[in-house]
Amino acid sequence: MSQLNGEIAKWKKEYPFLINTWNLYEEFNKPVVGDEQILFYDTTCQVVLGRANKSNENYKNVCMKLMKNLGVYSNELRPKNPSNERCKTINYWLYYVTNMTVIPAEIIKTIFEQSNKIAFSGKNQHICFNTYDEEIINPLKIIKLYNLQDNIETFLSTLKKKGSADYCSCKKYIYDCVNIYKDMNDTYCTDPDDRNNKNKSTCDMLSAFNWIYTEYLFKKIDIGEKIPSLLSEEKEYIDECLSAQRSVAETTTQHNLD
Fold first, then answer.
1. Which residue in 19, 133, 148, 154 has the most C-beta neighbors within 10 A?
2. What is the DSSP letter of 132?
3. Which superkingdom is the protein from (predicted)?
4. Interhelix angle 85-100/19-28, nearest 10 degrees
5. Residue-range domain boundaries for the chain
6. 178-200, pLDDT tens digit by residue?
């Protein structure tokens, strides 16, 4: 899964204000090699995967990482709230993993079920629930929206620091998300039949993003600050930051010529 490690490094560089999220992805993607519980993970995953799949190294690696991330066999306290940041990010991380290593949703479900059984057998009975849904269209785009949705306060505080190092990268992330939302909503959710049937999972997630973005970011932003509405029909671009970047580049070039 070195490809995902490369993506994480890129995100850290492009969107450093979301460092806590990227650090979780990095933690979840670490290999299990060297973990003191590796034998337990290996044995449990052989049972979970069954005779047909236990020799598949990709499946086993995903299984062992997921068990480690869920806190199976760990002496540490597991997350107390199944819907907290860590549990949600584990599920987001899974979409990236399964996008790069095709693994059936049924196996993911079984890993969670077995992990929950182990968790409930111990003194620390706090678990994360499986929200992985293979029906979601373009899940990596949806996760980009959810990274914004789950970090609204971070985006708000960053936007208040106009001129800071993170300001333009924050606005770029927002504009990217708005364009993703518009494209996906127009493509998959305008027809009522599609919205309520074959695309329901995707459209429900887009609808949730719409509400949270509008109520907790767009309407909360200070007067004089500009972020795009989800209702506008045009694609959005960050002229302000692009102009500033061009100005810096031109100044740097002029200094070099001098």
1. 148
2. -
3. Eukaryota
4. 60
5. 2-121, 139-257
6. 999 999 999 999 999 999 999 99
What is the pTM assigned to this prediction? 0.84
Which string of b and e fits 189-223 if b means at least 16 CB within 10 Å? beeeeebeeebeebbebbeebbebbeeebbeeeee
Nearest to 113 by CA among 134, 97, 127, 93: 127
Query: Side chain identity at 189, as an amino acid letter?
Result: C
Query: How many CA atoms does the CB half-sphere of 67 hold within 13 Å?
Result: 31
Q: CB under 8 Å to 44, separation ≥6 — which residues? A: 63, 67, 72, 114, 118
What is the widest separation between alpha-carbon atoms in the chain? Answer: 72
Contact yes or no for 88/129 (Cβ under 8 A): no
Burial class (CB in 10 A: 0-12, 13-18, 19+), 159: buried
Angle in degrees, 0-180, between the axes of helices 200-213 and 167-188, rounded to the nearest 10: 140
Cβ neighbours around 173 below 10 Å, total: 22
Type of residue at 154: T
In terms of Cα–Cα distance, which of 44, 54, 61, 231 is closest to 121? 44
Q: Long-range contacts for 4-9 (Cβ within 8 Å, ≥24 apart)?
A: 4/29, 4/96, 4/97, 4/100, 5/29, 7/96
List the structure tokens of 73.
Answer: 């066999």
Q: Name the nearest CA neighbour of 57 among 25, 99, 103.
A: 103
